[in-house]
Amino acid sequence: MKTFNQFIDKDGKSILNNFPTEIQNLLGNDISKSEKLVIEIFNKKTKARIGKLNNENGIVVVLSIEERYVNSSSLFSELLKMSIITLDNIITFRNNFSLNQNEYVQDLVHNLTSLNTYNVQELESLIPSKILTQNINTQRDVIKNIISEKPIVTANTLLKLIKYNYAMKVEFSVFEKTIMQNPKVQKLELSIREIILSILQVFIQEFEQRNIIVSIDNNEKRFHIDFEILFVSLFYILENAIKYCCRNSNFKILLKEEQNKFIVIFDMLSLRIEDEEIAKICQKKFRAKSAILHTEDGKGIGMSRVLKTLKLNNAEIEIIPRVTDYTKIKNNLIYEHNQFKIIFDTNRIF
Question: Which of 138, 150, 166, 255 could link 219 by a cystine bridge, Cβ 3.0 to 4.6 Å?
Answer without folding.
Answer: 255
